[in-house]
Design goal:
By secondary structure, the protein is an alpha/beta fold. It has 13 helices and 12 strands.
């Protein structure tokens, strides 16, 4: 059976540093451009974040929020983190990001989600051909967010396709710190995949071993990695192994260095203790890779990190204490990690050049359920953090809170999104440097969302 280079690349794309095999035969040098450095950091909240308890109306609409949601979910208005200058507030766990908001470096996106075409409730009910497939399914909605094909299968993701258009370098400018995901697979490139703890290791490799079997195995691997004179497929494979080994050595030198300028910013703002959550460890590794951008010859970087645990069908809040519990703990870890990351970017002098943004499978039912939880829904709210934003603002329209009303597809608060993924993330991609000519490549349905009065949301000047 013959195997093309592209097929081979897809075969190996799931394995740690081996994911870098997508960079086979590409040049290791990157010509510096006159464009300013830019990095985008996608933060996926796996499980379906209840964005209606992340962003809360803080004006007269709070009364409808309090009366419509299950009382076990309703946050006391006095506990909320007010977003000055707007009629909205955040869950109190986001207090560590108050400084970013005050500095004009955090914005909120209201009611965004997967859309195939512009919809209203009538079209949703009468034109099923315009609706995304398998709504409210975890794997399908994750694939919609990552691959941006709401009515067909995606074999690659928008960050991977963005990487296809970036200049090449010895270490890929696209890095995942959350394993192999559709998001980072490109048609002609693959990411560098870093662990959130420890270093990249070669399976079966023991440096300095005197064991005869281990030494023989390592000698065989070294010979295979050389690949010379063994045929085209073997040579291709060997070149990939050699490249991956080299990338691992470079990356390990960055993520495993004893100290770094950015480490000091990943501290609990109240206790001063080092942050230990997985999302904080991931963002610390992103910060270290950004710190090393010049040594890596990266003028553009993209990162994918994630936080799990958001499928909160029950016990989303503590009994008799809506401001504490599972979701509050997740938000606290997320907020402290993002605040530390934002502080590290400012210290590196690239605050305006780095933008972090949240994504999630879907939102949750506004009404809530009887188990102090919330079930799968559709539209949700998101936050964006970065010094390059055009000030702190709330973008979009909060849905009509009437159950069964014009924005509710199921009479319990499953709100139809008013902002498409492409309008939200497309704005960040354009800021990152994706050209107008390449937007339809990175976002296959871009034509739908860049005409007829639709377009990227105004996050940046």
């Amino acid at each position: 059976m013959s195997m093309s280079r592209r097929e081979f690349t897809r075969l190996v794309a799931g394995g740690s540093a081996m994911a870098a095999l997508g960079q086979l035969t590409q040049t290791a040098s990157l010509a510096q451009t006159s464009q300013p450095y830019r990095a985008m950091v996608g933060v996926f909240l796996f499980g379906g974040n209840d964005g209606w308890n992340m962003v809360i109306p803080n004006d007269s609409r709070y009364a409808a929020y309090a009366s419509t949601r299950n009382s076990a979910l309703v946050l006391p208005q006095s506990s909320l983190m007010a977003l000055s200058g707007t009629p909205f507030a955040l869950h109190p766990s986001f207090a560590p990001l108050q400084g970013a908001w005050n500095e004009g470096a955090m914005s909120v996106i209201l009611n965004a989600g997967t859309l195939y075409a512009p919809l209203n409730k009538t079209l949703y009910q009468t034109r099923p051909d315009l609706n995304p497939l398998n709504l409210m399914s975890h794997p399908d909605e994750q694939a919609h967010w990552e691959g941006n094909r709401a009515r067909s299968v995606s074999l690659d993701g928008f960050m991977g396709r963005l990487n296809d258009k970036l200049p090449t370098s010895a270490v890929p400018p696209l890095v995942s710190v959350t394993g192999a995901n559709l998001m980072t697979i490109g048609a002609a490139s693959s990411p560098l995949i870093l662990p959130s703890t420890g270093s990249i290791v070669r399976n079966g490799y023991v440096a300095g071993s005197n064991d005869t079997v281990v030494k023989a195995r390592q000698a065989a691997l070294d010979a295979f990695a050389d690949g010379g004179g063994m045929g085209s497929i073997t040579q291709l494979t060997g070149t990939g192994l050699s490249s991956a080994y080299a990338q691992a050595v470079t990356a390990n030198g960055i993520i495993s260095a004893a100290t770094s300028t950015v480490d000091q910013y990943f501290k609990n703002p109240t206790t001063g203790a080092t942050l230990t959550s997985d999302i904080s460890r991931q963002l610390l590794r992103v910060a270290r890779m950004i710190e090393a951008r010049s040594a890596l010859s990266h003028n553009r970087q993209a990162f994918f990190v994630s936080q799990g645990g958001y499928d909160t069908h029950s016990n989303q809040t503590d009994a008799n204490s809506p401001a504490t519990g599972t979701q509050a703990n997740l938000f606290s870890d997320l907020a402290m990690a993002l605040a530390g990351f934002y502080g590290a970017m400012k210290a590196l002098g690239v605050g305006p050049n780095v933008t972090a943004f949240t994504m999630s499978d879907f939102g949750r039912v506004y009404k809530g359920n009887a188990q102090r939880g919330s079930d799968h829904a559709w539209g949700s709210n998101h936050i964006v953090v970065g010094g390059g934003l055009a000030g702190s603002k709330v973008i979009g329209a909060y849905p009509n809170q009437t159950m069964g009303g014009p924005d509710d597809i199921n009479a319990d608060g499953r709100f139809l999104p008013s902002i498409a993924i492409e309008e939200y993330v497309g704005s960040i991609a354009m800021w990152h440097g994706v050209s107008s000519a390449d937007m339809s490549y990175v976002f296959p349905n871009w034509a739908t969302w860049s005409s007829g009065g639709r377009g990227p949301v105004p996050l940046f000047s």
